[in-house]
Design goal:
By secondary structure, this protein is of the alpha/beta class. The chain has helices spanning 2-25, 42-58, 73-80, 95-103, 139-148, 163-175, 187-196, 210-214, 262-276, 279-288, 297-318, and strands at residues 31-35, 62-66, 88-93, 115-130, 154-157, 180-183, 201-205, 219-223, 249-257, 291-292. Helix 2 (42-58) packs across helix 9 (262-276) and helix 4 packs parallel to helix 11 (297-318). This is Tripartite tricarboxylate transporter substrate binding protein.
Length: 323
């Protein structure tokens, strides 16, 4: 019995030493951050800001790799199936780790069980925009047009089942309007068609669209968050535009495969927190239309679970399905 106890204590000591050594040496080689969406979109932009800051603080390259497809599922499952050592991360979103669980019946990963959340890097509203030729200066006027012409107003989104798409579906349900969805594979092609007048309206993450709003290429009608966005205080919220109770917030957060040592998660979270506390980094994110967050892994895990439950209810209520 004494021998068994000593052997157990020795094993625990070895495990503790190994964990400590891992924490002290991590990262000892380059780290991949997989972005499960195309280059140039909001997720990609925020991932590259985070990668640069992590590389500076942790003294190893953090390499961004785009693996787009299936509303973020292709990139997400690649990370879920990777070794839980902290060298493969994903920049997840409310779509890849919230909406997908509600929309995709055969999703090849579990957004809660297959990942170890690190931190939300930043959050952002989605934004409702229209081509300047559309005779609607407010969201209320756009909804009135949609009610007068059911199914005639078309809107683009950055991916089927993504946060912008589901923002629109929730708005349609709550406002009682019918608008036609035109799905795109990313923000760039959707905005190209919107600016060109091929579609009338668009739903997108604010960071990848706000530059076109400021340049007069598209007209902003509303943001989806409960409060107006500090970087664009002249744009009203959906809730104050005649749809009380409406709320959708986008988030962009780093996750590792389930089983990644807590010491690694804490190292990454601490580095992100240090970065976003720097005025220049915070300004860079806010200029994009994103708000720095850097919450703890435990808080991020609770947020993901809540998001999954929220979107399951929305999908059940709207009956929306992927095209």
């Amino acid at each position: 019995m004494t021998f068994r106890i000593l052997r157990t204590l020795a094993a625990l000591a070895l495990w503790a030493c190994a964990a400590l050594a891992h924490a002290q040496s991590y990262p000892a080689k380059p780290v991949r951050i997989i972005v499960p969406y195309p280059a140039g979109g909001t997720t990609d932009i925020i991932a590259r800001i985070a990668a640069a800051q992590l590389a500076e603080r942790l003294r190893q390259p953090f390499v961004v790799e785009n693996r787009a497809g299936a509303s973020g599922a292709i990139g997400a499952v690649a990370v879920a199936q990777s070794a839980p050592d902290g060298y493969t991360l994903v920049m997840g979103t409310a779509s890849s780790h919230g909406i997908n669980s509600a929309l995709q019946k055969n999703l090849p990963y579990d957004a809660v069980k297959d990942f170890a959340p690190v931190t939300v890097v930043a959050s952002t509203p989605n934004i409702v925009v229209v081509h300047p030729s559309v005779p609607a200066k407010t969201l209320g006027e756009l909804l009135a047009l949609a009610k007068a012409q059911p199914g005639k107003i078309n809107f683009g989104s950055t991916s089927p089942g993504g946060s912008p798409h589901m923002s629109a579906e929730l708005l349609k349900m709550m406002a009682g309007v019918d608008m036609a969805h035109v799905p795109y594979k990313g923000a760039a092609p959707m905005l190209t068609d919107l600016i060109g007048g091929q579609i009338q309206a668009g739903f997108d993450n604010l960071p990848s669209t706000i530059g076109f709003v400021r340049g007069g290429k598209v007209r902003a009608l509303a943001v989806t968050t409960p409060q107006r966005w500090p970087g664009a205080p002249d744009i009203p919220t959906v809730a104050e535009s005649g749809v009380p109770g409406y709320e959708v917030s986008g988030w962009f957060g780093l996750l590792a495969p389930a089983g990644t040592p807590k010491s690694v998660l804490d190292t990454l979270q601490s580095a992100v927190a240090q970065a976003v506390q720097q005025p220049e980094v915070a300004r860079q994110l806010r200029d994009l239309g994103a708000e720095p967050v850097a919450n703890k892994p435990e808080a991020f895990a609770r947020d993901i679970a809540a998001d999954v439950e929220k979107w399951r209810k929305v999908v059940q209520a709207t009956g929306v399905r992927l095209e």
